[in-house]
Write a structure and sequence with these properties.
about 180 residues, alpha/beta, 7 helices, 6 strands, about 40% helix
Length: about 180
């Protein structure tokens, strides 16, 4: 039987670590679910609407573990780059002649997240899903914003790599409901 999770809070909201945060699609969903979010991404993300550390996500996570600062967090979300195995990216890169290799960061991300002792989610497309041909067109930036529910950025790259906030809002609410049941038991 699992022990009730010790909810670490920032004010009255549990604190979530968003690794490989990009434009904050995932973070926004978690914030809507009731979390305070802190992000980390290697690239400059001026549109990221939450507290944010610029740097290598795995090095930052290792630092948080080593210093014990990871104990501030209740939950972690990681979206390591998907270009290594995503069929759409691999196909696009090949068709554009870009074709350079990408590192698969899923295993090292999982290894570090396991060391935290926190519940976590790793978001990663499997690259094997069959996609209907009529759904492969490239939408406009306003179409991407509307479909994703993301209004705080109009940067195509950020929008195409973002996770819909509604998705992580669902995950966050489910986690918080589970914790509430464990605490009540």
């Amino acid at each position: 039987m699992t022990q009730p999770t010790d909810i670490r809070r920032d004010g009255e909201r549990p604190l979530l670590l968003d690794l490989f945060s990009c434009a904050s699609g995932a973070a926004m969903g978690y914030a809507r679910a009731g979390f305070t979010v802190h992000g980390c991404d290697i690239a400059s993300r001026p549109n990221y609407p939450f507290p944010y550390h610029r740097g290598d996500a795995l090095a930052y996570l290792a630092h948080l573990i080593t210093t014990g600062e990871i104990r501030r967090y209740t939950f972690a979300h990681a979206s390591p780059p998907c270009q290594h195995g995503c069929a759409l990216t691999v196909g696009t890169n090949a068709s554009q002649g870009w074709g350079h290799s990408h590192v698969d960061l899923v295993a090292p991300t999982r290894d570090l997240l396991e060391q935290t002792g926190l519940p976590y989610v790793i978001e990663q497309p499997n690259g094997r899903a069959e996609i209907r041909k009529d759904l492969t067109g490239k939408p406009t930036v306003p179409e991407l914003q509307a479909a994703m529910g993301i209004t705080w950025t109009d940067v195509r790259e950020e929008l195409t790599e973002a996770i819909p906030p509604a998705y992580t809002e669902h995950i966050g609410r489910a986690f918080l409901a589970q914790v509430a049941l464990e605490v009540a038991a």
